[in-house]
Specification:
Length: 404
């Protein structure tokens, strides 16, 4: 059952609040942050953080009576430290909709709402433009930044899929990238909603962005707050398998951005994550995968030997204590060797200075440089697939190395 409670809004965003600043200095953004006070039941009168998706329930004001879903906060989920407004009883019952809408998202739930889908016109194949597939939303900013550094004249768009947060307005990263011109657009596909355009399918979103909107490349992956378990297949990042197959079917050059870590306490995510290895193992066709320059292999002793290149940048600005000890023991599934493994240059200090998000699951760039290095390598490789010169290849040739 839904875990719903009645509450009263006691605080809202103000124009000078961090969230309001993220929305351009006004409370007109897609998500509003609130403090609510629960009424009835236990713990009555307790104040709690809450968010309201403005596209669904409208803006709230102090004193409004609301119904909030308390499930995530009650469970103590790492990415759910707030209640979610289900309906605003004071000012959210106006019955307004989208005039030109003819499709429903979140259909057959109490949150179903009408949208105008972007899918139209005939299918034009192949799209022949590259798509980078993400497993985690935290990879989006470094991929987009590296792409822009390598190909500033090219336009990169983002397709948000299922696997993490479904509301498109929940991502501060997307808003920051749009403000800085690092993303040309944001489409929400499938059950995800609230982007600048709504697509019924991931295929429809990619086709519309790369064809109708003229994106030179696309990055495709889940929103923030990934859904997951400790199992091999029970993880929102597995949506990367579906997204990669869609991109391949559309005739796009497909790049899988590897989830890698040098700081994750869980051994299954050290080096290259078992989630990425699983996707690479299950894919029906080969894709491109990027490694930070200096790494000859994504697994085993060769990965360990290549980590020095990744740690070289952050080690100059961080104490030795901030760098975790490496304990890598990753086996190589036979089927991952069929993919196109490339090495690409990364600029960790440059990304650190960009002001873009530089944390993953509570770890900073200095504490987990490999996570960001792998995503930056993906952005550089995506730019290369889009026609930009290969900075990573040039660096390797100057050093006498060869790409693998």
């Amino acid at each position: 059952m839904l875990k719903l409670r009645s509450a009263t809004v006691v605080e809202t965003d103000h124009p000078d609040s961090p969230n309001a600043a993220a929305n351009g200095g006004a409370r007109s953004g897609p998500e509003q942050r609130l403090v609510v006070e629960l009424s009835g039941g236990e713990p009555e009168g307790r104040r709690r953080a809450a968010i309201a998706d403005v596209t669904l329930v409208g803006h709230a004001e102090v004193g409004d009576e609301v119904i909030v879903n308390t499930e995530a906060l009650d469970l103590g989920l790492g990415s759910g430290g707030f209640d979610v407004v289900h309906v605003n009883l004071t000012r959210g019952l106006g019955g307004r909709g989208v005039p030109d809408a003819n499709v429903v998202k979140l259909n057959y739930t109490s949150l179903q709402h009408a949208v105008a889908p972007v899918e139209e016109g005939r299918l034009e194949l192949p799209v022949e433009r590259p798509v980078a597939v993400l497993a985690l939303h935290g990879q989006l900013a470094p991929v987009a930044w590296a792409f822009a550094q390598a190909a500033p004249e090219l336009r990169l768009g983002y397709v948000q899929t299922e696997g993490g947060a479904l509301p498109g307005g929940h991502s501060r990263t997307v808003r920051a990238l749009r403000r800085q011109g690092l993303l040309a657009g944001h489409l929400t596909a499938g059950a995800a909603f609230g982007g600048e355009g709504e697509a019924i399918t991931t295929a429809g979103a990619l086709h519309h962005g790369l064809r109708a909107l003229g994106w030179d490349a696309a990055v495709c992956g889940p929103g923030p707050g990934i859904v997951g378990s400790s199992s091999t297949l029970g993880h929102g990042g597995m949506v990367a398998l579906d997204s990669a197959h869609v991109a391949l079917a559309l005739g796009a050059s497909t790049l899988l951005v590897a989830r890698m870590s040098s700081g994750d306490e869980r051994t299954r995510h050290r080096g290259i994550s078992h989630h990425t290895l699983t996707v690479l193992d299950l894919l029906l066709a080969p894709v491109t995968v990027a490694l930070p320059a200096g790494m000859r292999s994504p697994v085993g002793a060769e990965l360990r030997a290549g980590l020095g290149a990744v740690f070289a940048g952050p080690s100059r600005t961080s104490s030795p204590e901030s760098r975790p000890a490496l304990a890598l023991d990753v086996q190589r599934p036979v089927r991952i060797t069929r993919h196109d493994w490339r090495r690409a240059a990364v600029d960790l200090p440059g990304y650190a200075r960009s002001g873009l998000p530089a944390q993953t699951m509570g770890r900073t760039l200095a504490q987990d440089p490999l996570f960001f290095a792998a995503a930056l390598a993906g952005g550089n490789a995506l730019a290369e697939l889009a026609g930009a010169p290969s900075a990573g290849q040039a660096e390797l040739e100057e050093s006498g190395g060869t790409s693998g």
